[in-house]
Fold this sequence. Notes:
It holds the Pfam family Acetyltransf_6. This is BioF2-like acetyltransferase domain-containing protein. This protein has about 230 residues and is of the alpha+beta class. The chain has helices spanning about 10-15, 40-50, 65-80, 90-95, 135-140, 140-155, 175-185, 200-205, 215-225, 230-234, and strands at about 20-30, 55-60, 100-110, 110-120, 125-130, 160-165, 185-195. A hairpin with a 2-residue loop joins strand 3 (about 100-110) and strand 4 (about 110-120). The longest helix has 15 residues, at about 140-155.
Amino acid sequence: xxDPLARRTPAQLxxxxxxxxxxxxxxxxxxxxxxxxxxxSHRRHARRAGRAVEIRVGDDPAxxxxxxxxxxxxxxxxxxxxxxARFSRDSFAQQFAVxxxxxxxxxxxxxxxxxxxxxxxxxxxxYHLGASSxxxxxxxxxxxxxxxxxxxxxxxxxxxxxxxxxAGDRPDPDDGLFRFKQGWSNDxxxxxxxxxxxxxxxxxxLSAGAGADWFPAYRGERVESGGAAADGAS
Length: 234
């Protein structure tokens, strides 16, 4: 998927990816230089959570790896999470080592109840993942974390924050996470799925008999025959 913050047109993308450029979903953005009034529900939850938790910011999230894994395991238990997002502890350890990774967490009585992960690249930042404990959900701690995150990112020179879109492989305005992120956004950008065939003879051989609606076509054949749907969601 092309980075929505690159703001490239389909024609520009097609010059680099001649075999596949299709609209995917709209992603929600936050322009930190523009006013972004919050919905009343977001303001109320953020105020309530802000009175109950302490916000801590860390450029070295590796120190919170165990806390994060525990929080994320709750998400895996309580939600329908696609297989490709079921990261292992070792995977998270590698992700936490990526330059620009920032962890922002809410702490109550010395215990982390909510945490979000952000990736910073110059004036752009990307929301990666978030997770909360049962207590964090009770407090609405994620609202306080997001409010603090935008303030912190702005102080670090970030202009645009990419919040992602709805869950799944198609737009869903009724998705709860989408509505949560929508309340923080003040802009949108189109996301495109792009592809380029590097070995045309081999690709034609692998895709023989497959339909043309999927890219790569041979993955579509696997999904239609009962293969892992996660392959096609990437």
